[in-house]
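Project outcomes to date are best conveyed with an example. Our students and postdoctoral researchers have been running inverse folding experiments weekly, and each run begins with a structure described purely in tokens. The record below, which covers 205 residues, was selected by the lab manager from last quarter's runs and is presented without edits.
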């Protein structure tokens, strides 16, 4: 059974991003608009050094939780990154640059292959015990949802784990590249800020 975004979020309908505007559409007669930081800004941080990649993952996941207006609670558990505050669903998040749309022309990707499980070269089969109910797939300018039931139909064993080789129409999109407006980049020296925080913690001991 395919679960659509409207099935999971009937009162939210769709989240759309326009520059610094975060627009939530409900029913046509009830919509509201408020100005916040662009939800996709955190996804633009680089942090590609090996020692920074875990921090980068935390930034992106917490960014999703922050800009869901409390709907998604970051839990960071085994096989689960978020819990839906309204329905209690567990959600696993998978992020990869240009996962669903191409980098230059923003065309739908012909090959959507998120890594669902990493087995470090010892994978056997496609069995994933205790899957989350839903999987949230993200790239720098798109976010989509797929149920575990649907995802299981696309699981493929690869030498270092399990991938899902998804059809584009298997995804229910929350927002797409055309929904994302211009963003003013924010320059932050993360390495310096992190070292300052570490020193402050040491001084407090």
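After processing, the design step wrote out the following sequence:
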């Amino acid at each position: 059974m395919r679960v659509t975004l409207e099935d999971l979020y009937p009162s939210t309908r769709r989240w759309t991003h326009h520059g610094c505007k975060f627009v939530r559409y409900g029913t046509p007669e009830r919509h509201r608009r408020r100005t916040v930081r662009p939800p996709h800004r955190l996804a633009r941080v680089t942090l590609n050094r090996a020692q920074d990649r875990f921090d980068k993952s935390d930034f992106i996941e917490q960014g999703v939780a922050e800009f869901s207006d409390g709907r998604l609670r970051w839990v960071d558990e085994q096989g689960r990154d978020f819990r839906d505050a309204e329905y209690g669903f567990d959600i696993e998040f998978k992020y990869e640059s240009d996962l669903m749309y191409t980098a230059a022309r923003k065309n739908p990707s012909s090959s959507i292959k998120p890594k669902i499980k990493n087995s470090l070269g010892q994978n056997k089969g496609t069995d994933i015990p205790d899957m989350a109910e839903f999987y949230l797939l993200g790239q720098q300018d798109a976010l989509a949802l797929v149920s575990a039931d649907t995802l299981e139909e696309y699981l493929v064993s690869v030498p270092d784990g399990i991938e899902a080789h998804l059809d584009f129409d298997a995804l229910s999109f929350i927002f797409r590249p055309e929904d994302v407006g211009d963003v003013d980049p924010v320059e932050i020296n993360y390495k310096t800020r992190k070292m300052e925080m570490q020193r402050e913690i040491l001084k407090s001991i």
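The chain has a mean pLDDT of 80. The two ends are 54 Å apart (CA to CA). The training component of this project remains on track.
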